[in-house]
Amino acid sequence: MVEHQGLDGLRAELRPDGVGVIAFDRPERLNPLTMQTLCDLERVLRQLGEDPACGAVVITGGDKAFCTGMDLKATEPTGAGGEPIEQVYAVMRRAVSSVLTMREIGQPVIAAVRGPAVGGGFAIATAADIRFCSPDAVFIAPFLKLGVSIGDMGLSWMLPRLIGAGAAAELFYSGSPLGAAEGQRLGLVQ
User: Fold this and answer.
1) How many CA atoms lie within 13 A of 73 on its CB side?
2) String of b and e for 62-77 (b: at least 16 CB within 10 Å)?
3) Measuring CA to CA, how many Å separate 69 from each of 47, 83, 116, 161, 179?
4) Average pLDDT, consecutive stretches of 10 residues, N- to C-terminus, the chain (190 residues)
5) Which of 56, 161, 46 shows the shortest CA–CA distance to 98?
C-alpha cells in the first residue's frame, strides 16, 4: 500500500490490489473543496495515472458526504494579486484542470458517492467514468441560487450527455436535489 502524504482535505492510497483510492477528508465540513484540495487532487490523479501498478481509481468522500463543492468561506491566497475576478478565474482554472486530469488518465475512474455531492462535488462525480451510490446519495447543482456559473467544472457539458438535456436543465434551473434512485433511473448512477 502506498499512501500519499501532505494532502489538504484528501486521503489517498494505492492499495495492494492496484486500486487507487482518493477520499475527500474534511468530514466536519462535509468535505468541501479548496484551492489546495484541487491542486492535491490533480497531483494525486496524475501520480496514480502514471503508476503501472494502478488499475483503477476510486474517488469517495469521508464520513457522511461525498463532497459539498467549493468552500465559499475559505480565504486562500491564489497568487492572483488580490484581484477578486482574477482569484475567481484562478480557482476555476484549477477546478477545470483537476476534472480534465480525471478524464485524461488511462485508468477507469469510479465515483463512490455517499450522502451529498453538491456543486463541484456533483461535477467531480459526473466526470467519473462510473458512479456507484449508496441509497442516501443526493446530487445538487445550487449554482443559480448562488449566482455562479454552472459550467465551471464541465458539469453543464457532461450531465446532459448522461441524463438528457431536459432533465439536466431542470436540475440546473431549479437547484432541486436528485436522489440516488432517480439518478439511477435517469442513467447518472449505475
Assistant:
1) 3
2) beebbbbbbbeeeeee
3) 23, 22, 10, 21, 17
4) 75 97 94 91 96 98 90 60 73 85 97 96 96 96 69 85 96 94 96
5) 46
- The H-or-E segment that residue 139 falls in is strand 138-140
pLDDT in tens, 119-170: 999 999 999 999 999 999 999 998 766 666 665 688 989 999 999 999 999 9
Can you tell me the distance from the alpha carbon of 64 to that of 49, in angstroms, rounded to the nearest whole number? Answer: 27
**Structure letter (DSSP) for residue 31:** S
- In this structure, how many other beta carbons lie within 10 angstroms of the beta carbon of residue 93? 13
Helices (H) and strands (E) in the chain, counts: 7, 9
User: What's the whole-model pTM score?
Assistant: 0.90
Residue partners of 183: CB distance under 8 A and separation at least 6: 131, 133, 137, 139, 163, 189
Degrees, nearest 5: CA angle 11-17-21: 20
Q: Tell me phi and psi for residue 144, to 5 degrees.
A: -65, -35
Q: How many other C-beta atoms can be found within 10 angstroms of the C-beta atom of residue 48? A: 26
DSSP H or E segment with residue 138: strand 138-140
What would the grid cell of residue 129 be?
Answer: 467514468
